[in-house]
């Protein structure tokens, strides 16, 4: 018997799978099961992180096929974005050429992995047949008032020379190049995601509840759910007028303790409140604040600020309170102004202590104590006098006139009632979530389908590109180098057009769309990527979506994942779908680090190329090691020297053939190779002993349950334990060998395919129905 030679086995089966169309989609057949992993950016080479992500998804997809599901497991490329443009600038090539050559290379690497992707439904977002529908979606959003143009302060990356969404800023720096972010006021296109804020707060979508109405909603990781809810940040409170200045507060019960007001450096009324003698110091402060990112302003420990010279009236007690400007107040949240209650807000407390402002306690903390006469707990109130921190908890009202003695909760309602009755403000809901800026001053992205017909040449204003003229294709002759304005400004022949309404001289929009627009809906397009008449077939979407399971990165909680939920709801609103959530189950994958324990990076020289590892050990060995070396949601370094353990494991599986009971083998070899029923009958004629059966079925149950739970490392551990058990036996039955192959197949498809053929248990070239555990399973290996 020949030894285990992955370099011969793996190319053989990869070729057969491709030629036979084994994993081709069967969208019109029953029992649909849609499995998806977040598609990759075509950077040029797959790295171990890709293998980890897609390998895990492939294990799961293969298991579901073996259980008889009609699995749809597509793949594609998220191919617009800054990396391609930066590579074009650096290498002197066109982004399209760089991107498409990388896609071809990565496609070959995916084949080497042995992944069971459905490549006949591939999506490449930088091709016009895809981004045409980005533009179509934008026009629908414009029609519904969800897309709009406005001027606003934005996160500006001075290196990339473009606006970034809040979700693309990490610790005050650009998530692409690492440059420190600046605040800059620019004209932008926005999507009104805030209109969907309440619908995006979890729990969501009752049609996806399982079991009773109060059972868990879709199976998503708790950190994703909590992270999105915190980012949306719904706050129920009251909008209150301090003369001409409006403030929003979630604690109207503390209104009697508001001893000053703070407005942001960007507040439009700042100039009005600044007196002549304070103007110089205020203007200097505005300049200094502009140098800080929003995150820095939120997290800075040392408070700073300047008195404007003006006061406003507290509507509850009539006191005149000073108006200060400070950068810990943000123009983007609430009204850009706050009532400062230093006794009951720590930030205000620190500010008041620094500048010697009044601190007035209006909430007393309830103190529970036991009396000498009984063990009953009696509530009393005590006003805190802590000079080190504010008291921010609930309590009993004090120093608040007629509201004294009420609980904080009672006072919130009564004070809000008073504010509304006397027309001093109103109850209101605010969100941390901002509208999504999709304008990017870069080339490699979807052109925004808008034309400007402005005076003196025209008078139509902002004109949507007619649907019949889609797609608006990117011109190829463009200067890519960032200058602070959109590169498409340099494409004059493309930019200068006739107005679709009046026929006068007009100009195209030269900003392109944020890349997150592309990947917010691609899982819909996978179902129907060649359809040029509509965005996708609605019947297919109703049949195949929501996704059964979606594998992706935890880092996309506030970007791609949230935006995809927003798009899915918008599609429902315009009649494309009937569901709210795009995935029933979400699984976060972990991070594979370099051998030195740092994030893999070419600049650090710690990137491990999977192609090199395949040459040494074979793809199946990498797949086994990937599944085994850490939990799927873990983080750990890739150490090539540890691969030898997984390789020895597969060698032992291969050698186990020699232990198959020879009496059964001889009978099987005497049967006609085409008589598969006879072979199967002979193969199962000798069954394992009871303790062997227990071990076999224990392993079947463990591996099945662990794959379903995405616990691949413990599933491999169970297979290793069973292999050790079988290795101690003198002989094994074909039934044992058959089930070992079946359980190992999702993890190591090449070696198991070869072993299956050697055992002559295949009925056809594309699949086999076998009897196992009393049910009919289909294996497509």
Helix fraction, binned, reads: 25-40%
Query: If classified by CATH, what would the architecture of the largest domain be?
Result: 3-Layer(aba) Sandwich
Q: Within the CATH hierarchy, at the fold level, what is the topology of the largest domain?
A: Rossmann fold
Question: For the report, how would you describe the main beta sheet?
Answer: 4 strands, parallel
Mean pLDDT: 86
Task: Specify the number of helices.
Answer: 26
Give the class from helix and strand content and strand pairing. Answer: alpha+beta
Total separate domains: 4
Low-confidence runs (pLDDT<50, min 5 residues)? Answer: 205-216, 368-384, 668-675, 678-685, 761-781
Report the CATH superfamily of the largest domain.
Answer: HUPs
Rg estimate, integer Å: 32 Å
* Strand proportion: 15-25%
Spatial order of strands in the largest sheet = 2-1-27-28
- CATH C-level label of the largest domain: Alpha Beta
Measure the end-to-end span.
22 Å
Shape: globular
The total of beta strands comes to 32
